[in-house]
Amino acid sequence: xxxxxxxxxxINPDMVQPxxxxxxxxxxxxxxxxxxxxxxxxxxxxxxxxMWSEHCSYKSSKVHLKQFGDKAVKxxxxxxxxxxxxxxxxxxxxxxxxxxxESHNHPSFIEPYQGAATGIGGIVRDILTMGARPIAVMDPLxxxxxxxxxxxxxxxxxxxGVGGYGNCLGLPNIGGEVVFDESYLGxxxxxxxxxxxxxxxxxxxxxxxxxxxxxxxYGAKTGGDGIGxxxxxxxxxxxxxxxxxxxxxxxxxxxxxxxxxxxxxxxFAEDLVVGIQDLGGAGLSxxxxxxxxxxxxxxxxxxxxxxxxxxSLSPEEILMSESQERMCAIVEPSKIARFLEICEKWDVxxxxxxxxxxxxxxxxxxxxxxxxxxxxxxxxHDGPVYTRPFAQPAYIEKAAQEILSLPxxxxxxxxxxxxxQLAAAPNLADKSWITDQYDRYVQGNSIQTQxxxxxxxxIDEETHLGVAVATDANANWSYxxxxxxAKLALAEAARNIATxxxxxxxxTNCLNFGSPEDPGVxxxxxxxxxxxxxxxxxxxxxxxxxxxSFYNQxxxxxxxxxxxxxxxxxxxxxxxxxPMSFDRAGLxxxxxxxxxxxxxxxxxxxxxxxxxxxxxxxxxxREMRLIELLVAxxxxxxxAAAHDLSQGGLSATLTExxxxxxxxxxxxxxxxxMTLLSETPGRVVVAVEPDQVGALTEEAQSxxxxxTKIGVTGGDALVINSASIPLTELRLAHTQTxxxxxx
Amino acid sequence: xKIGVVTFPGTLxxxxxxxxxxxxxxxxxxxxxxxxxxxxxxxxxxxGGFSYGxxxxxxxxxxxxxxxxxIIKAAQGGMPLLGICNGFQVLAEAHLIPGALTRxxxxxxxxxxxxxxxxxxxxxxxxxxxxxxxxxIPLKNGEGAYMCDDQTLAVLExxxxxxxxxxxxxxxxSRNLIAGITNERGNIVGLMPHPEHAIxxxxxxxxxxxxxxxxxxxxxxxxxxx
Lengths: 743, 226
What we know:
The complex is a heterodimer.
Chain A: H1 6-11, H2 26-36, H3 42-51, H4 54-57, H5 62-65, H6 67-70, E1 78-80, E2 87-92, E3 95-103, H7 105-110, H8 112-129, E4 133-143, H9 149-169, E5 173-180, E6 189-199, E7 214-219, H10 229-233, H11 254-269, E8 275-278, H12 283-294, E9 299-302, H13 315-320, E10 326-331, H14 336-345, E11 350-356, E12 362-366, E13 369-374, H15 376-380, H16 395-401, H17 412-424, H18 432-435, E14 446-448, E15 455-458, E16 466-472, H19 475-480, H20 482-498, E17 503-512, H21 519-539, E18 543-549, E19 553-554, E20 557-558, E21 562-571, E22 588-592, H22 603-607, H23 620-635, E23 641-644, H24 649-660, E24 665-667, H25 672-677, E25 684-688, H26 693-702, E26 707-713, E27 717-720, E28 723-726, H27 727-742
Parallel strand pairs in A: 4-5, 9-12, 17-18, 24-27
Antiparallel strand pairs in A: 1-2, 2-3, 3-6, 4-6, 7-10, 7-11, 8-10, 9-11, 12-13, 14-15, 15-16, 16-21, 17-21, 19-20, 22-25, 22-26, 23-25, 24-26, 27-28
Helix pairs in contact in A: 8-9, 8-11, 9-11, 11-14, 17-27, 20-21, 20-23
Chain B: E1 2-7, H1 14-24, E2 27-32, E3 43-46, H2 68-76, E4 81-84, H3 86-93, E5 100-102, E6 110-118, E7 134-141, E8 145-147, H4 150-158, E9 162-166, E10 178-182, E11 188-191, H5 210-222
Parallel strand pairs in B: 1-2, 1-3, 3-4, 4-11
Antiparallel strand pairs in B: 5-8, 6-7, 6-9, 9-10, 10-11
Helix pairs in contact in B: 1-5
């Protein structure tokens, strides 16, 4: 292919261009011509096509996502909000914490190991780009049925990829989720969360200010991997036929990224950059256009200077390449010598590829010939915006009218069998087979990791200040009622922070849905965003950023709406956290919160193949009072342990508590079957010393939270009314599922 | 007492090892792979991680780093040297101790709280423990199975050079449940599990690992390594 330049575009305005193959609609192509006043060059077309893809431009979701801004709470804690690489939150003592989730769903289906690995790599670079040292990762995952043949292919590869990359970066994996459901068969979800910490003064932004400043590319050389990954992979439904798309998945090298992290942190510490951007989806197209739009707009880049792994790459391919482990910095000329020196120390490839100008265009040349001449905002921010039609799908009414018909255990034998069955269910079983493949100790600051309710890391070794993060989504509830489902996921994540006694501070999200071109899916999405925005407003929590992943569907079947909500909390002294479980006999066990007949969307209903019914409604005022109670319980040293109730209800919570430190419990329940299985939100089991019962009662009364004594700790069995389940038997049921499935 | 902690490109547990040294009462000195100067340290730790991305073989490239020359020389002269995990692999590649570390028998990375029995308390790094003492510290690696030929194994067993052994089920396929070994002189120890992650039960499974670091400080004070 011969070089297509700006002058050729002017001379030859009617050349036929493959815009449709690059994923652009005819009206989008027309809009590009209108912006430029001519046809785009092939390089410009490449840039617009990747930047205007669903994945990069949020063109279908933007109109809904702006609610996060419209309904935003005034929060002093928010230092950097939505729009930058990641939001930044003030956690006190001069520290700022940044956290964000991103999806890498489609690549992980095609190439599980590399898809998941580069998912971790990408989110870590986002956090690094803010100026922060990455300190932990989490991985909310969704798979098809646990026993499906394709899950046996996808799950081990994804887990190995998350571990292979994260372990090599020296980042503790402090939690996540693993959920199985038919709708994820062919559409596994790999969401990756990273947390970073910095001092307030160290925050960096993606902006190219100051004419004469240099544009510096550093990190890995650019290769042919991931070309078109953004538009081809993230924005198209998988069909059963069609060409193999493997080459579009990026290949990662965590060693290069580890060195890049240390090199970057040393550069940041010496204050050598004006602005910085990582190269992720859409590669250099994204980094140059976003940096330029963050400044005055003017930038000149000599594309032929980009160091290449494959010298045969065309300029279009270089612009679109998603080769991993690359960063782009804006550096003042007076500081470039030191910048290059630090890169040399770390053996990091570094090249000055251009400079900031006082113009308003991004100009890219190839061996002296102008191949891109665009107003950068039109590429980075002024992409198309769609108000896609949406309508409540027919299944909603139908499902709400369904009457659930589920067996409710009542006899001794039935209770025992039910508890064992739930303990062994793939969605509730012990996940050590997965989490033992992740390093949870590196950096030496991990306070809580899986299977705790939240991940918690210490950020100051002297003051013991720490942060906790939890991610949650209940897709079964979101399926029945996406508005309430989003609020319930938010409440659950916040509660999971609070059980340890941390105070929720900020929210991030990763919204995984089917095709936005399906009005029913679009309705699920719109309702989810409305629910999350309303919920955050009510709870006073700012949304610091997020990610949308559409087109998670095979043919006409979409995944369950899966809004993964991440909540960050702060704890002033990690040594005082409330542990998830008890390690001694003689403690009294109480259930906080009322239990209703909430089986719709429950694990028990799922196990019996029943999807219908009416999902519970979120009562966020009550959730906030419960959180107050949980935080007060820690600071006043009332609790010996606290553990959230969610999927699998009280049965799952008790199983996890007694097995954690191999200390049994004797439980007495009224309406035993329903009480064990119901998933009424806003409930927590707490263990207290007998002399703290008075204090607990007082706190519960003042927060108007129902309090029910359910039993005492001790023994080597979980005894529920007349049913006695030896811990050895319960442990066997709980721990054998994953090794049996995945070996 | 100054304990050097080496950072190779891709080293991960250097800050943890330095923290453990300080917690034990020593002074941690950062050593850089490309600097062939030991900065007057009294002992050296090669920490865990994925130096050079485990390219070629784990530890194979780091072993040729400029800093390794003076370390090998000093260790051959009796300076205490501890290689943890990837550091153990570097020691093996440098032939400072016999044998090799190979892929875990289950073929994936494994992170768990591992029970060990301290078999030899006469080395520079284990004198704080009592013979046969059982401790729990994290094990986390992908290539931690200790392998050597039968003759070497017989020598190691015969001379009491097995420093620590896994208790219970073999976690990675190591011969004779070997978790750590020492050289003839007892100043060099290679250990697969991570004592630096177990200096405090707040962040680790126990504080059992601290003994490795207090041991070396003690041995430096008394001037004896055996």
